[in-house]
């Protein structure tokens, strides 16, 4: 993954000053300020209240009051994922802290740098089942890079500085700092910078030269290579270096769900997204390759299908900053531990040395891949029920907004369509919950992205199911002048679950109808709901209304916009690899699978 996901300065880089007597709560605020944090999402409560008092007077920290702690957590991840900066969220003890757990797990799965600060009951009450007590350190230890418990105010500056360092270096991720109320209230002598000691924490960034040379040799010898690009390339800010390697080796590139935008969709070497709902060329390129160069990717089950049958004839070069990921699922012939940005530079140089500048001979491979691109282009059929095609709606959002926009998706069919039908030309433009698959991610993540990137258009592309989980953050957006655009792809159901019920459960739609869309009671009415939150509400039911609604949303920047796109419930996400089978059996459409080769 990466070592440089945020410009937050290290404690040593901040000028020191004379010690001053302050409370632990004041030290929390002062430490965040000294570390260059500018935006914080949070919700106060009793156990964190001491911190909110000095926060009230801070001129350097913008605190955004969210309506639910999960919203604050996802806003912090959206902030980080769209900008590369650290996202910060604050919550109180007990239910406030546990409401953050889903967002923390999400950041952990997707390697997003996030700092969660929580209040804890008095240290003298811990372990007594005190009011609003929860062992949040124990709860979150498996889903953070580290979780700290602070009982001594003198430990607060060093702990927060250490937490920021851990969250933003190596493979980025969430770090939790839990601070007892008595530690917040007590006074101590504050001095900056603090002494930070993290014995054993030494992320490797520079790869071993012999391994890089071995990888370059394999690429030079390969007849059917593929660059398998994961989200680590985006976290490492290594898109330019990836482009150089790709154009030097002439190898095809596939970008995972987390890596959309790491390599331009418009580039002729880009085959699209691999995986369960990837493009046919991307899926079969991996499956029939003789060499996979995995860059910041982790061989997720949604990419590999049945792992034992994945790319049976391929050797593997695996580059990752997290040594735990290498050979975890697929044994690497050449393992390379290091920062993707540095490794890509070294790998390109080594390839040029190995080949002596000779052009690779990949004409036969590209003829096969171009044939797949021609025969199996990404597309969709118009719904038979006369309702809107969701793919068309999402495609027009991308076309009218352009590549400089930021697109945050919820989870489900609309997520896959947004990954497929919007063209991504730059990193950090696509935000989604890839590993955890968290419904409710889109609206708060878009809110965080708009705070981090106020000059960009930010869309939340959501489903009617996902939208009902976190739409209360529209209030936060309206009151804090965060004018996001929300496209509700309203098929009146839990769409992806319904698709599986159609395909694998004989159309038995058990508990997936939501009654929000066409020909239903419309509870809730999303237009009325939007207006109640002070947003502009629009409903679109006809194809000829789509562009006008999107353009109105793009022109409206004084408040959030919610567009209720009433789409067909029968639309499905294609292509698709059924779970538990080889990727060779990818279905281009229902009952339509391309021919494939089992030969070497």
Automatic annotation (TrEMBL):
Kindly list the organism's lineage. Bacteria, Bacillati, Actinomycetota, Actinomycetes, Micrococcales
EC number(s) reported in the record: 2.2.1.6
The protein's name: Acetolactate synthase
Thiamine pyrophosphate enzyme central domain sequence ranges: 212-347
Q: Which reaction does it catalyse?
A: 2 pyruvate + H(+) = (2S)-2-acetolactate + CO2
Outline the extent of the Thiamine pyrophosphate enzyme TPP-binding domain: 410-565
Source organism per UniProt: Agromyces lapidis
Q: What class of enzyme is it?
A: transferase
Q: Name one Pfam family in it.
A: TPP_enzyme_N
């Amino acid at each position: 993954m990466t070592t440089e996901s945020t410009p937050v300065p290290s404690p040593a880089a901040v000028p020191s000053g004379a010690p001053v007597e302050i409370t632990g709560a004041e030290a929390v605020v002062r430490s965040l300020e000294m570390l260059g944090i500018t935006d914080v999402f949070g919700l106060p409560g009793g156990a964190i209240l001491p911190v909110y008092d000095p926060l009230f007077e801070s001129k350097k920290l913008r605190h955004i009051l969210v309506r639910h702690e999960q919203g604050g957590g996802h806003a912090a991840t959206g902030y980080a994922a769209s900008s590369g900066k650290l996202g910060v969220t604050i919550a109180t003890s007990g239910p406030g802290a546990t409401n953050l757990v889903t967002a923390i797990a999400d950041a952990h799965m997707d390697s997003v740098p996030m700092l969660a600060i929580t209040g804890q009951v008095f240290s003298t009450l811990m372990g007594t089942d005190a009011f609003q007590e929860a062992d949040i350190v124990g709860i979150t230890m498996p889903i953070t890079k580290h979780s700290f418990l602070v009982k001594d105010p003198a430990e607060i500056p060093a702990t927060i500085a250490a937490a920021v360092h851990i969250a933003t270096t190596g493979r980025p991720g969430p770090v939790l700092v839990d601070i007892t109320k008595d530690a917040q209230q007590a006074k101590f002598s504050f001095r900056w910078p603090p002494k930070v000691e993290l014995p054993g924490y030494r992320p490797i960034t520079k790869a071993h030269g012999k391994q890089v040379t071995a990888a370059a040799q394999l690429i030079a010898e390969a007849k059917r290579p593929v660059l398998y690009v994961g989200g680590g390339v985006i976290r490492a800010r290594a898109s330019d270096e990836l482009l150089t390697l790709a154009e030097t080796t002439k190898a095809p590139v596939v970008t995972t769900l987390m890596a959309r935008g790491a390599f331009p969709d418009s580039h002729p070497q880009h085959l699209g997204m691999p995986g369960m709902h990837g493009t046919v060329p991307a899926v079969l390129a991996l499956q029939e390759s003789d060499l996979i160069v995995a860059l910041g990717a982790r061989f997720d089950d949604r990419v590999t299908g049945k792992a034992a049958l994945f790319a049976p004839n391929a050797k593997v070069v695996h580059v990752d900053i997290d040594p735990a990921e290498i050979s975890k699922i697929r044994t690497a012939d050449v393992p390379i531990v290091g920062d993707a940005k540095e490794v890509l530079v070294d790998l390109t140089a080594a390839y040029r040395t190995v080949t002596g500048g000779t052009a690779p001979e990949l004409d036969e491979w590209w003829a096969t891949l171009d044939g797949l691109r021609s025969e199996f282009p990404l597309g969709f059929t118009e719904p038979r029920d006369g309702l809107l095609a969701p793919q068309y709606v999402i495609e027009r959002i991308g076309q009218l907004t352009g590549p400089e926009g930021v697109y945050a998706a919820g989870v489900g069919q609309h997520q896959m369509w947004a990954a497929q039908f919007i063209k991504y030309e730059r990193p950090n433009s696509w935000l989604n919950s890839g590993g955890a698959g968290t419904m409710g991610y889109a609206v708060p993540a878009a809110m965080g992205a708009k705070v981090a990137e106020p000059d960009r258009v930010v869309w939340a592309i959501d489903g009617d199911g996902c939208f009902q989980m976190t739409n209360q953050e529209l209030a936060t957006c309206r009151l804090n002048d965060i004018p996001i655009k929300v496209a509700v792809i309203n098929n009146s159901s839990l769409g992806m679950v319904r698709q599986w019920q159609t395909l694998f459960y004989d159309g038995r739609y058990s508990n997936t109808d939501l009654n929000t869309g066409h020909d239903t009671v419309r509870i809730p009415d999303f237009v009325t709901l939007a207006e109640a939150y002070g947003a502009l509400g629009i409903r679109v039911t006809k194809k000829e209304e789509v562009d006008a609604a999107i353009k109105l949303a793009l022109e409206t920047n004084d408040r959030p916009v919610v567009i209720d796109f009433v789409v067909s419930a029968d639309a499905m996400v294609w292509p698709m690899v059924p779970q538990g089978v080889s990727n060779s059996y990818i279905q281009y459409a229902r009952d339509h699978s391309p021919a494939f080769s089992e030969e070497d």
